[in-house]
Amino acid sequence: MKKIGLLRLFANARVLLFTLLLISCHSNVKKEDITKLNGYWEIKQVRFSTGKTKDYKINETIDYFELRQAQSDNRITGFRQKVMPQFDGKFQTNGIKENIKVVEKDNSFFIGYNTKFGKWKEEIITIEDSILVLKNKEDLEYTYKKFKPFSFK
């Protein structure tokens, strides 16, 4: 009797652990958080699928996101552009904009990119006022921080 009870307890624990794992893997991103993507973001760290990380202390280019939501169908579209911050507070760019759209699928949000060079998507893992985490299909996880302009004060 005790052996059957332990097996049942073990099976229940496995189901509970699996359920918790599924819940923890799901994104906490809400639709109303998507507007936080607007603005300038600086890469802070990349986590590789192996678990190793690469930290970025100084960045010559940063990502600028601009989104808009269509009134007619609620679609969220816009662009991402690489820009180079200047000491005078302005930005230089090569003028290339990547068209993006934000889509929701299975309670997660994805940024879909579309350029003349290809199409790809990244999952929005975390989005807060000052932190953004994106993950691509190669399981690379990019952590960004909100860009703060140079200051000589």
Shape: globular
Total domain modules? 1
Count of discrete alpha- or pi-helical segments spanning 4 or more residues: 1
Radius of gyration: 20 Å
The ordered H/E elements are HEEEEEEEEEE
* Helix percentage range: 10-25%
Widest beta sheet: strand line-up: 1-3-4-6-7-8-9-10
CATH architecture: Beta Barrel
CATH topology: Lipocalin
| Cα end-to-end separation | 74 Å
- CATH class descriptor: Mainly Beta
Content of β-strand: over 45%
Strand segment count? 10
Q: Tell me the major beta sheet.
A: 8 strands, antiparallel, barrel
Low-confidence stretches: 15-26
Mean pLDDT: 86
Structural class: alpha+beta
Provide a concise account of the structure shown.
The protein has 1 helix and 10 strands.
Describe this structure as you would to a colleague.
The chain has 1 helix and 10 strands. The chain is α+β, with helices and mostly antiparallel strands. The chain has one domain: Lipocalin (Beta Barrel), CATH 2.40.128.280. Strands 1-3-4-6-7-8-9-10 form an 8-stranded antiparallel β-barrel. A hairpin with a 5-residue loop joins strand 1 and strand 2 (53-55). It is globular and about 70 Å long.
